[in-house]
Amino acid sequence: MSDHPFLDTLDGQLDWQRELYRDLHRHPELSLQEDRTAQRIEAELAGLGLAVQRVGGTGVVGVLENGTGPTVLARADTDALPVTEDTGLEYSSTVPGVMHACGHDMHVAALLGAVKLLADHREAWSGTYVALFQPAEENAAGAQAMIDDGLVDRVPRPDVALAQHVMPFAAGTIGTAAGPVLSAGDSLRITVHGRGAHGSMPHNAVDPVVLAASIVLRLQTIVSRETQPGQFAVVTVGASNAGTKSNIIPDRAELLLNLRTYDTALRERIMAAIERIVRGECAAAGSPREPEFDYYDQFPLTANDEDANATVTRALAAHFGAEAVFPTTPYTASEDFSRIPDAFGVPYAYWFVGTVPAERYRAAVDSGTVSSEIPANHSPFFAPAIDPSLEIATRAQAVAALAYLAPSSPAAEEAR
Ligand code: ZN
Ligand code: ZN
């Protein structure tokens, strides 16, 4: 690990980071309610000498300026989930029904650790480091809230944006990939209209139950008949609601859909196909009113820039050893991080950090029990191992930034 020798001073700050992590874990806060978390982050950043501002309510941005050079933005999300913790850990949540079950507390502690490394060793790099703490990732509201509050005009424009997520695979390993690493996720409420009537007089009705049933069946052909085999897409009808009683034909039906895609063009084609099918079926049924489409809980695609991913992957492999960095397949989960680099119009890299003690993970792989034995994100049993996960995640944030900010790095030379 001789690429950035100063990073070994991490040993001296890890106790502070462990305390920080346990404190955040004990005091989780739901999306858009991260007040205590934001205050702790503000205090730490100010203590490290950064210019700090609130952006988007409970969002916090600290800027570390250190001479000429590239600008790197690194992001951590800060919110917790409505989950009742069942880990039995000594530092378990003290808030009933709320838990850091997705590891965002680890993201915060790691990013603050990277800030401290860079703040304490200004001689080792030059440029600008923007540490961004984003609220409300879990409901896809936080990145947009920061953008709506003027983020793009209030912080230096980055050359690249970086983010990471802890995942339940072997600690000490890091997954990276160019292109899609998380899916775009969209929820959609469709309301179709019929004409209500007595259940004994169907000839006076336009039956929205039959209409909704036809729509549900035909929607199945979007993936099976309209999407190229091998391309990833999910169209799920998660709810179909109409009517109250056996002898009343209702006047409307509501469908709730969930879509997942790894490709923006395909996502748009699928949305257009859904609307075409629904309108077509409504016309076929003689529906008296146009259907309504209401998109909600929309997560953008997370697709890594090829060059940014190559730069970060090379730096991580140089630091941790090539065997520690593996090419990840995309996860079907979703994230709102990419809204931030997209708002600036800049490339980004997003990677995954393992949190399960390596021997334990290997044993679960060997016995084929990973899905039953290793609690995943959002589980009440999700419990990242602080050591060595926190150190690895801190080093990963610092090393990825230094690929751009350290004077000797090829990426920094190029950007100069
Ligand atoms: Zn989550
Ligand atoms: Zn998460």
> CATH topology of the largest domain, which one?
Aminopeptidase
Helix count from the secondary structure assignment: 13
Per CATH, the superfamily of the largest domain is Zn peptidases
Overall CATH architecture of the largest domain:
3-Layer(aba) Sandwich
Total DSSP E strands = 16
Q: What is the terminal separation in angstroms?
A: 25 Å
Stretches with pLDDT under 50, minimum 5 residues: none
Question: Which compounds are bound in this model?
Answer: zinc ion
Please summarize the sheet with the most strands.
Answer: 8 strands, mixed
Order of helices and strands: HHEEEHEHHEEEEEHEEEHEEHEHEHHHH
Radius of gyration (CA) equals 24 Å
| Helical content class | 25-40%
**CATH class label of the largest domain:** Alpha Beta
Structural class: alpha/beta
Overall pLDDT confidence: 96
Quaternary class = single chain
Strand order, sheet with most strands: 1-2-4-3-5-16-6-15
How many domains? The number is 2
Q: Which overall shape is indicated by the principal axes computed on the Cα atoms?
A: elongated
What proportion strand?
15-25%
